[in-house]
Design goal:
Rossmann fold; 374 residues; alpha/beta; eight-stranded mixed β-sheet; 24% strand
Length: 374
C-alpha cells in the first residue's frame, strides 16, 4: 500500500497558500508542484520552497509521478479542472463549492466513483469535533426522530461597497449563497440528507451589486423534517464567521457551534454515561484531537490528513466525498431557483445515488470514535 503521494496545489490565493503550507507538513503528502496564472506568485513559491512552478494546468497534470491535486481556484474553474484531473487518473481535493451547477457536480461525482479515485471537497466543518459529534448523536438516535433543523451563519465579510473581485462577480461563483451559506447547508445535508422541497427562498443584497449578501429559505426533508436557512455575511454585529446548527428531535435537542456542543435529553430520552438528562455541554478542546500540523484551525489540517488517507484506500467512503458535495450543490441550486420563482421541487438532469438521500455507509474512525458516514 502506498504511504506517500505526490500532489500539486493549483491556485495560490488565500486558501491555496494555506493548503500549500498544511500539505507540506501532512504525513503521506509530498507537494511537488504548484500552479497559478500569476508568474510572480508561482516563481516566488518556487524560489523559497523549491517546489516546481507551472503556469499551465494541462502541463502540470501531465507531469510523470503526480498522484493528486488540490484545486483552490475560483469556483467557475472547478468543473473543467476537476474533470481533466480525474480523466488523468489523479486524486482530487477541491475547494468548496464543487461547481456552480448540481448536474456538473453529480457528473463529477459519478466520474470519480467510476475511476476509483479519492475525491474530496473542502467542507472543513465536518472535521470539527462539535459538528462531527452532533452527527454521531443523530445517527445513534439519542434525540429520537428529527423534527426540525435550523442552519445559521453570520459574519462581517461585506460591510460597505467593495471593489470588484471574483467573489463579488456572479459569473465567477461568488455571493453569500455559494461562498458562505454552503458551509451550514453542507452540515444540514450531512445530518438529514438532501431536501425534497424548498419554499420562501430569498437572496437579498445590501452592499454587493451583483451577488447576494444574505440567504433565507425553508426546506423539507424526506422523513418529514423541516429546515430553515438563515445566513448573512453583511452582519456588522459579528466579529468573525459564526456557524450554528440547532436540531430538534422527539427526545431532545442539539446545538452545535465551532467551540461548543450542547445536548439536551428530555423525559423520553435514554441517558448515557456521556449524556445525562437535561443539558450536557462539551467543548471543542475535548472533542477534537491535535493534528500533525496546526494552521488556521485543526479542521483544515484534519481534512488534508483525511485526503491522504482516502488516497491510500479510495474504495472507502470519505468524509467529504464528491457525492456529498453534489448533494449540497443540489440544495444551493434549489434555494437559488426558489428565490427566482422557478418550480421547486424538481429532479435535476443528472443525479447520483449519494445525492438522493443520506446513505447508510460503513462506519469509519473519526477523532478516535466510530462515526457513521452520510
Amino acid at each position: 500500500m502506498r504511504t506517500n503521494f505526490n500532489i500539486a496545489v493549483v491556485g495560490l490565493g488565500k486558501m491555496g497558500i494555506s493548503h500549500l503550507a498544511i500539505a507540506r507538513e501532512t504525513p503521506g503528502l509530498e507537494v511537488t508542484a504548484v500552479c497559478d496564472s500569476s508568474s510572480l506568485l508561482g516563481n516566488m513559491v518556487e524560489k523559497y520552497t523549491g517546489v516546481k512552478y507551472f503556469s499551465d494546468f494541462g502541463a502540470l497534470i501531465a507531469q510523470p509521478g503526480l498522484d493528486g491535486v488540490i484545486i483552490a481556484t475560483p469556483t467557475r474553474l472547478h468543473a473543467a479542472m476537476v474533470r481533466q484531473a480525474l480523466e488523468r487518473g489523479l486524486h482530487v481535493f477541491c475547494e468548496k463549492p464543487l461547481t456552480l451547477t448540481a448536474s456538473d457536480s453529480a457528473d463529477l461525482s459519478r466520474l470519480a466513483r467510476q475511476a476509483g479515485l479519492a475525491a474530496q471537497v473542502g467542507y472543513h466543518n465536518r472535521f470539527l469535533g462539535t459538528f462531527a459529534r452532533a452527527k454521531e448523536i443523530i445517527d445513534e438516535g439519542l434525540i429520537g426522530n428529527i423534527r426540525h433543523i435550523h442552519a445559521e451563519a453570520y459574519g462581517p465579510v461585506v460591510l460597505k461597497p467593495a471593489s470588484r473581485t471574483w467573489r463579488s462577480n456572479a459569473t465567477e461563483g461568488g455571493g453569500c449563497l455559494y461562498d458562505y451559506a454552503a458551509h451550514p447547508i453542507n452540515l444540514m445535508n450531512w445530518y438529514l440528507g438532501r431536501p425534497i422541497a424548498c419554499s420562501g427562498g430569498q437572496l437579498t443584497r445590501q452592499w454587493s451589486r451583483e451577488v447576494d449578501d444574505a440567504v433565507y429559505a425553508s426546506l423539507i426533508f424526506p422523513d418529514g423534517a423541516s429546515g430553515q436557512v438563515s445566513v448573512n455575511w453583511a452582519d456588522e454585529t459579528a466579529r468573525k464567521m459564526s456557524t450554528r446548527l440547532s436540531i430538534w428531535g422527539d427526545n431532545g435537542k442539539i446545538i452545535a457551534e465551532r467551540q461548543e456542543l450542547q445536548v439536551f435529553l428530555g423525559a423520553r430520552a435514554v441517558p448515557t454515561a456521556e449524556y445525562r438528562s437535561g443539558w450536557t455541554v462539551q467543548y471543542i478542546t475535548e472533542l477534537t484531537p491535535h493534528p500533525a500540523f496546526y494552521l488556521r484551525g485543526e479542521e483544515y489540517s484534519a481534512q488534508l490528513e483525511n485526503f491522504a488517507s482516502a488516497m491510500r484506500t479510495p474504495e472507502m467512503p470519505g468524509v467529504n466525498d464528491f457525492g456529498s458535495a453534489a448533494m449540497t450543490d443540489f440544495t444551493l441550486q434549489m434555494i437559488r431557483d426558489a428565490a427566482k420563482g422557478r418550480p421547486v421541487p424538481y429532479a435535476p438532469a443528472a443525479s447520483t445515488a449519494s445525492a438522493q438521500a443520506a446513505p447508510k455507509r460503513r462506519r469509519f474512525a473519526l477523532f478516535g470514535r466510530m462515526a457513521p458516514q452520510g
